[in-house]
Amino acid sequence: MRLLIGASKDPGHKGDANRLVERISHVCQIDLSNYRLSYVERRVAARMRVLRLRSYRQYCQHLDDEPGERALLLDTLTINVTDFFRDASVYRFLSQQVLPELIDRKRRSRNRLIRVWSAGCSTGEEPYSLAMALMEGIGRHGEEVHFSVVGTDLDVKALEVAKQAEYPITRASHIPKTLQAKYLEFTGDRFKIRPKVSKHVRFRPLDLFSGRPVGMVDLILCRNVFIYFNKDQQEKILDKFWSSLTKGGYLVLGKSEKMPASMVGKFESIQGRERVYRKTDGL
Ligand SMILES: C[S@@+](CC[C@H](N)C(=O)[O-])C[C@H]1O[C@@H](n2cnc3c(N)ncnc32)[C@H](O)[C@@H]1O
């Protein structure tokens, strides 16, 4: 492994990078075959900058010698950045168009349960935001329509935080004030999601590539997760989402992510800018 950071034009670069990935997969016991090579390289480069190491060889040596590096690298690879009501316009669209339609549909159906899946939910802000939006939407129809939200992620440490349903007070700033008053309980410099919300939300570890998908869901949010994956991998996951969704179910991707052209027969765009799609019959 001769590579220095930035020497990407080196003809041996790809081989070096592949060997690096093999080494990391072995030491960290993580399957990186589903991650873009350039993504893994960028994240490793971030660690190398911190450690002031100049070659992948030096980094692999460090990974072997320092037991703590494994956890630090894993943290770097699975960036957990998230927020309550992240991208307010998406939640506005969900609350004004998608949720009312779903609630209406369920009121007219024998199955009165709305099932939502937040795939790649990180520390739980997205599933709790959805639960609050659903409670607002269902409002006076609470006797007729019920809901459950499942949050999944491959990062079990992030899920531990999610299950606590407790966050530093600074995280509340994107939660509308009216919702804060109804659904949060403030104590000192922290707040907790009230049980009337959190009782509807469950979490479980799931690798989108290898785990058993959540089935029979009416709405899937998978936002800011596809950034890690190449087109083939995105298609594989979209196929799984298609099977998991009920007829006419909705899918929301991240604002900077888009539906691969090959999948347009399976998902029709409902709102392009907000990346909201609806399952079609897939014919
Ligand atoms: C940037 S966060 C997005 C959180 C939330 N969806 C949002 O938009 O705010 C991306 C999450 O995807 C998770 N992730 C990455 N690869 C995954 C995979 N193969 N299966 C499941 N989750 C994955 C990461 O652990 C991380 O928590």
Please provide a written account of the structure:
Mean pLDDT is 91; it is low at 1-8. β9 (267-271) and β10 (276-279) form a beta hairpin. With 283 residues, this protein is α/β, with parallel strands linked by helices. It has helices spanning 13-28, 37-51, 56-65, 67-77, 88-107, 125-138, 156-164, 177-183, 195-198, 231-244, and strands at 113-119, 146-153, 166-168, 184-187, 190-193, 201-205, 217-222, 245-253, 267-271, 276-279. It has 2 domains: 13-77, no CATH class; 88-279, Vaccinia Virus protein VP39 (Rossmann fold, 3-Layer(aba) Sandwich), CATH 3.40.50. Bound molecules: S-adenosylmethionine (SAM). S-adenosylmethionine binds at residues 78-82, 86, 120-122, 126, 153-155, 158, 206-209, 223-225, 228, 254. The site of S-adenosylmethionine has 23 residues, from loops.
CATH topology of the largest domain: Rossmann fold
Describe the largest sheet: 7 strands, mixed
**Helical residue percent?**
40-55%
Roughly what is the average pLDDT, rounded to an integer? 91
Spans of at least 5 consecutive residues with low confidence: 1-8
Radius of gyration, taken over Cα atoms and rounded to an integer in Å: 21 Å
Structural class, from helix and strand content? alpha/beta
Distance between the termini: 48 Å
What characteristic shape results from the CA principal axes? globular
Provide the number of structural domains. Answer: 2
Per DSSP, the total helix count is 10
**What kind of assembly state do the chains in view correspond to?**
single chain
According to CATH, the homologous superfamily of the largest domain is Vaccinia Virus protein VP39
Question: Which CATH C-level class of the largest domain is it?
Answer: Alpha Beta
Q: Which strand order do you get reading across the main beta sheet?
A: 6-2-1-7-8-10-9
Number of strands: 10
